[in-house]
Amino acid sequence: MRITKEAIDELYPNTAYVIKNESVLEILDDTVVSYEDIVQKVAELDYQEEVKEYQRQRAAEYPSMADQQDMQFHDAVNGTTTWKDAIQAVKDKYPKKKMNTRTLNKRKKDALAELEASRES
Q1: What is the dihedral of CA 9, 25, 109, 51, to 10 degrees?
Q2: Is the pLDDT of residue 82 over 90?
């Protein structure tokens, strides 16, 4: 079981806590927390990061803004589509992804099963 600051902050925004070794949570106030909710939130946030990977990949491969402006200038002067073609090539290489509810629910279920298994051992 992994606990993250992002999950705790989203679920329990006004709670005082300390995370030790990514798996031990110490609550410093009287907030009652649910480890089931926490592991499911971690699974959800991890999945969101995976889905957003295409954004990071695109950003790394898009031409610089200066190069894009140069392409746009030359496209306007020459009647070409160099800029649109370059951008579309990156978009095609890294298609936009969306969260799939079935996948998200499976990951949450798996996270709960892992939590239960860790409690039994």
Answers
A1: 40
A2: yes
